[in-house]
From TrEMBL:
InterPro entries: Ac_CoA_lig, ACAS_N, AMP-bd_C, AMP-bd_C_sf, AMP-binding_CS, AMP-dep_synth/lig_dom, ANL_N_sf. SUPFAM superfamilies: Acetyl-CoA synthetase-like. Pfam families: ACAS_N (PF16177), AMP-binding (PF00501), AMP-binding_C (PF13193). Residues 25-82 form the Acetyl-coenzyme A synthetase N-terminal domain. Its cofactor is Mg(2+). Residues 532-610 form the AMP-binding enzyme C-terminal domain. HAMAP family: Ac_CoA_synth. Mg(2+) binds at residues 538, 540, 543. The lineage of its organism: Bacteria, Pseudomonadati, Pseudomonadota, Gammaproteobacteria, Oceanospirillales. Its EC number is 6.2.1.1. GO terms for biological process: acetyl-CoA biosynthetic process from acetate. This is Acetyl-coenzyme A synthetase. It comes from Halovibrio variabilis. One of its GO terms (molecular function) is ATP binding. Residues 84-467 form the AMP-dependent synthetase/ligase domain.
Length: 649
């Protein structure tokens, strides 16, 4: 229980210099609840508006009318907020520090350089016929051109859809079609941990799929110079086109509710859904959370180790930090290459003050023992952050003690692709920390716990995490499918946004996220739908049926456990397991790699044919004694068989 946990009080020296201390947090939070319109109208002044908004909040979570609009009559341009307005004061300040996969590769890009290159790219996009409202798919390595591409789209009012560079050609194709993208921006190859990933080849393969002929051009950054095929008339070298453009491109005035980007994420059913984020509210929320949660001060070096393919990279590598005129570090590689000391070495090399990373990275380092950090001092660090999955208290303590030298508060930030920015989090100058708890709500966020019938639960308790009112960073819809948006998030509990997470609240009102309560897995902080992996498997000719569940994994948080029923006459073999593993990797991407495949002669089903995942999860976790009631199963004997096979793993 929480009261037996270590509590880390706010350090006086930290609170004295922080943007927000306890008194200020209480007052601001209260104001954000009592007078949301007044609170957000004031906060909106942190952005540069072409036309300041007068209509602040217009939102409804009612099932029959889910409609979310913020700052509706305001006009702004997101890229101008991230670039132009910094030129006078900090044109020569570093905007992006790029650290390559190879420790010898790094470079600094000033705000002025980023401005000019982004403007050139924006002009290049126009030359390719991309304009306001068009969508562009980005499938890129962690290189500055990725940030430039996002900002260039924003500059001309195009909508970007970034696809994580680890996804397969099919996943790229699905997203190009879903977003109706006329352009894909990619690179010849990406480099991670010394290995080259053939991005262009994957795009070539993706664009052979039916329905992708909407895509007319592929803009290719030369990252490695590796050999690639070339499709004349479609493919264009990035530098060749961009170099010849003017460095000035007028920023398109955009409505606050015009879309800024689409980002695909997995749900419990169906294909991944493209969440739609809009311009004004999103940018304001990303910037404000970046300033307060990371207590960002002018001149500091800030490093978020996520990939731009995920929402964390959007909000906390690119938009939040750049809107605040910060120096943001972008790392191409992985923390384990060339050695496990790399993370700390990067901190020392660039004098990083704030480090935001994922529990899985912390646990992977922790597994190598305390000495793994011996090659660095990390004495520039002032604050640490965690995101993506629950951080177990042991990993939290190790992060604090070994990486942070017991000098840095840790902000454990809970949020989602759908929320656009951080929702439940400590503010380091205001909130005493409890390892493993994301603590309390950010300004304007109204979390609550409900039981399965939607009754609000009070006090110290456990339940389903919902949010009771809108906040500016919230996704507005699912691209092209508002009905699915309503079904997924607003149909379970009337008038509330359902997060899909389970959560405990302790006697101090601190929130402890317990993980997903739906069929979504969180593997190394990557979100994946069990249904997606299952449908990939059943597309293999040997597979009659498949069920996918998560199981506790020391490093990844959750691993992928697959039960497979083979078709009639198909022989089970280790070769077939390997083949199925490759199949899923190829179909979805390496992040969906199965950890364990178990042959299942039958799956536990109710008499109406529904697979009882609860039982499969227990068997996968090796908790076979607590299976609960199996009497409603059509054939309870399949359970014994599965347990017996489990023992043989
Ligand atoms: O289950 C929660 C978990 O990650 C999910 C959201 O995943 P995604 O949309 O990919 O965004 C990840 C980065 C924001 C949530 O529903 N999650 C995220 N942060 C935390 C977390 N679980 C516990 N603690 C966190 N700090």
């Amino acid at each position: 229980m929480s009261d037996q946990q270590n509590v880390y009080p706010v350090r006086d020296d930290f609170a004295a210099n922080a943007w927000v201390d306890k008194t200020k947090y209480t007052a601001m939070y209260q104001q954000s609840m009592d007078d949301p319109e007044g609170f957000w109208a004031e906060q909106a002044k942190r952005l540069d508006w072409i036309k300041p908004p007068s209509n602040i909040k217009n939102t409804s979570f009612a099932r029959d009318n889910v409609d979310i609009r913020w700052f509706e009559d305001g006009l702004l341009n997101v890229s101008a907020n991230c670039l132009d307005r910094h030129l006078d004061k900090r044109g020569d300040q570093t905007a992006i520090i790029w650290e390559g996969d190879d420790p010898k590769d790094s470079k600094h890009i000033t705000y002025r350089e980023l401005y000019t290159r982004t403007n050139q790219l924006a002009n290049a996009l126009k030359e390719l016929g991309v304009g306001k409202g068009d969508t562009v798919t980005l499938y890129m390595p962690m290189i500055p051109e990725a940030a430039m591409a996002m900002l260039a789209c924003a500059r001309i009012g195009a909508v970007h859809s970034v696809v994580f560079g680890g996804f397969s050609p099919d996943a790229v194709a699905q997203r190009v079609i879903g977003a109706d993208s006329k352009l894909v921006i990619t690179a010849d190859e990406s480099v991670r941990g010394g290995k080259h990933v053939p991005l262009k080849e994957n795009v070539d393969a993706a664009l052979t799929r039916e329905g992708t002929d909407v895509c007319k051009n592929v803009l290719v950054v030369k990252r490695t110079g590796g050999e690639i095929d070339w499709n004349d008339g479609r493919d264009i070298w990035f530098d060749e086109l961009v170099d010849q453009q003017s460095g000035e491109c007028e920023a398109e005035p955009m409505g606050a509710e015009d879309p800024l980007f689409i980002l695909y994420t997995s749900g419990s059913t169906g294909a991944p859904k493209g969440l739609k984020h809009t311009s004004g509210g999103y940018l304001l929320y990303a910037a404000m959370t970046h300033q307060y949660v990371f207590d960002y001060h002018e001149g500091e070096v800030y490093w978020c180790s996520a990939d731009v393919g995920w929402v964390t990279g959007h909000s906390y590598i690119v938009y939040g930090p750049l809107a605040n005129g910060a120096t943001t570090l972008m790392f191409e590689g992985v923390p384990s290459y060339p050695t496990h000391g790399r993370l700390g070495e990067i901190v020392d090399k660039h004098k990083v003050n704030i480090l935001y990373t994922a529990p899985t990275a912390v646990r992977a380092l922790m597994a190598h023992g305390d000495n793994v950090m011996d090659s660095s001092k990390r004495d520039s660090l002032r604050l640490l952050g965690s995101v993506g999955e629950p951080i177990n208290p042991e990993a939290w303590e190790w992060f604090y003690r070994v990486i942070g030298n017991e000098q840095c508060p840790i902000v454990d930030t809970w949020w989602q692709t759908e929320t656009g920015g951080i929702m439940i989090t400590p503010l380091p100058g205001a909130t005493p920390l409890k390892p493993g708890s994301a603590t309390t709500a950010f300004f304007g966020v109204k979390p609550a716990l409900v039981d399965n019938e939607g009754h609000l639960l009070e006090g110290a308790t456990e339940g389903n995490l919902v949010i009771l009112d809108s906040w500016p960073g919230q996704a507005r819809s699912i691209w092209g499918d508002h009905e699915r948006f309503i079904q997924t998030y607003f149909s379970a509990y009337e008038g509330m946004y359902f997060t899909g997470d389970g959560c405990r609240r302790d006697e101090d009102g601190y929130y402890w996220i317990t993980g997903r309560v739906d069929d979504v897995l969180n593997v190394s902080g990557h979100r994946m739908g069990t249904a997606e992996i299952e449908s990939s498997l059943v597309a293999h000719s040997a597979v009659a049926e498949a069920a996918v569940v998560g199981f506790p994994h020391d490093i990844k948080g959750q691993g992928i456990y697959i039960y497979v029923t083979l078709g009639d006459g198909i022989e089970a073999s280790d070769e077939l397991k390997k083949e199925l593993t490759q199949w899923v990797r190829k179909d979805i991407g390496p992040i969906a790699s199965p950890d364990i495949i178990q042959w299942a002669p039958g799956l536990p089903k109710t008499r109406s044919g529904k697979i009882m995942r609860r039982i499969l999860r227990k068997i996968a976790a090796n908790e076979c004694d607590g299976l609960g009631d199996t009497s409603t199963l059509a054939d309870p004997s399949v359970v014994d068989e599965l347990i017996e096979h489990r023992a043989n793993q």
